[in-house]
Structure formats: structure tokens, C-alpha cells
Amino acid sequence: MKMKSSLVLVAVLLVFAGCSTTRSISNSGYRDDSQSGYRHAVRADPGFAYQGELNEFDVLAVDRTKLVTDEDIARALDDAKRVTLKPGSSILLIQSGAVFPDGPMVTELTRHFKVTAFSGVPPKHRTMTDTEPSEGVSYSRSLRLAAARAGAESVVCYWGTLESARRNMETKTVSWIPLAGWVVPDESQHMRIRLKLAVIDVRTGGWTMLTVEPPADKSWSTQFTRGSSDQRQVEALKRRAYEAGARELTKLSSTEAALVR
Fold first, then answer.
1. Domain containing 165: what range?
2. Nearest to 225 by CA among 187, 192, 190, 193
3. What is the Cα–Cα distance from 41 to 27, expressed in whole angstroms?
4. Is residue 109, in this structure, part of any structural domain at all?
5. Element (H or E) spanning 78, and its range?
6. What is the pLDDT of residues 110-126, one digit of tens each?
7. Which site from 74, 80, 165, 214 is most exposed, i.e. has the minimal number of CB atoms within 10 Å?
8. H or E stretch covering 199
9. At what angle do helices 226-250 and 103-110 cross, to 10 degrees?
């Protein structure tokens, strides 16, 4: 009993030494390399070769190769329109880096809009010649054309980043000892998710960018439950972020919608 009490006591003491990592929500799997002791994220779906994220400049048709003048800026301000999402309107939904948007996000947005899911995997090769528009402008127009052919009035593309920090506990060296059917937790993980959404008007190309307050979570784990604990945190934070993202998108139907471009 004395040993058990001592272990429980030190279980709440943290060692302020650990590491922090970031990963995309589209590449949010987990792997424990027992050889080196280094844990890092890998793709959750082993059948999907993660190819990185969509470039924001490409999605928003920002031509970084073009010389911009003050007249261009003034004209853009004069032509700016409000981006709105009417309840029940059709949207083309894209999750950057993923073949298909996450199910919980599709579910949340389907409550308010007609959702057509579209791939967010970036092209492996895009070229630009002197006679062609920049690859960013060209790619954005291709997305808008795909949306138009699907009858969607808007394109919604979102990016998500998971940020996590782990701290070892004093029980690290004794976590393998079973005590009455349980194991002493030896590590805590703090995690939060940052979600950003771009809403693009298919007809005009005008756009607005939204963010949500990053939801956060803390979890305790043992060496035997590290991976499952991590993935439970990921899924819980995704659901919370997607709910918040859906609420922000529905606000665009109000008169407070943001000016774009």
C-alpha cells in the first residue's frame, strides 16, 4: 500500500522536459519508434501517400509573379464584393492535403449547405510558360470551374494544424509496473488545433478567410496507450474545430460578412 501511495503521489509531478511537434490534420497518424524513443506522426491511412498541402496562393489566385501597382490595388478595392453563404446553398468542400474531407466536417456542413466533396491533394507537377497564366491563377480557376460544373456557388477550402507538446513525468521509470489492473501514467500531452478556412465565390473569384479559436486538450498516457490516446485527442479536437468552423461559415449569410480581395 505504501508503494502504491507513493507512485500515485509522484504521478502528478511533471518533469519540465519534453518535446513539441506540429502536423497537418491530413497527416495526423501516430507511430512510436521504440528503437530511438522518438515518436512522430505518420499518415493515418497507409494506403494514402501524403503529398503535402495546397498552396494558399494557388487556391486564392494570388499571382506572386505579377508586378502589382497601386492602380491594381485601388481597382481591387473598388471591385470588392461581400462573400456570402446562403443557407442551403451548394459548396465545393476541400480539405488541404486530403483525398476526401474528414467525415465530421462534411457532417457539420451538411446541416447547413449542400456539400460536394473534392480532392485537396496538391498536384505533383505544375508548370508555367510565358504564354500561360501563373500556376496559382490557373489552379484557382480550375477549382472554380470544377465547382461551377457541380453547380456549387462557393468553394470552401480549409487547412488544419495540430500542435502538441509532451512532458515526461517522474513515473517514467516505473510506468511498466501493474497496480491492481492499471498502469501508472508517465506522460502528459497538451494538444490544440488551428483551423483556417477560405471561402471563394465561384462566379467572381472574390474570397474571405476565416479562423476559429483553437480548441485545446490535455491527456495522460502510459507507454502502452500512447498511440491510442494521441489519436483520441486528435479526433476529439477535430470535431470541436469543425463545429466551430461550421458556425463561422454560417455567419457569412449575415450582413456582417467580410469584404474580400
1. 11-253
2. 187
3. 7
4. yes
5. helix 70-79
6. 999 999 999 999 877 55
7. 74
8. strand 187-201
9. 30
Any domain includes 114: yes
Identity of residue 248: E
Residue ranges for the chain with pLDDT beneath 70: 1-19, 31-48, 125-137, 168-186, 224, 253-261
Domain count within the chain:
1
Torsion of CA 42, 48, 50, 54, to 10 degrees: -130
Residues in CB range of 37: below 8 A, 6 or more apart = none
In 18-38, which positions are buried (b, 16+ CB within 10 angstroms) versus exposed (e)?
A: beeeebbbbbbbbeeeeeeee
* Residue whose C-alpha cell is 485527442: 233
Query: Identity (one letter) of the amino acid at 218?
Result: K
6: in domain: no
C-alpha cell at 155: 468553394
Cell of 210: 476565416
pLDDT of residue 168: 65
The amino acid at 42:
V
Task: Classify the C-alpha dihedral 32-36-41-46 as positive or negative.
Answer: negative
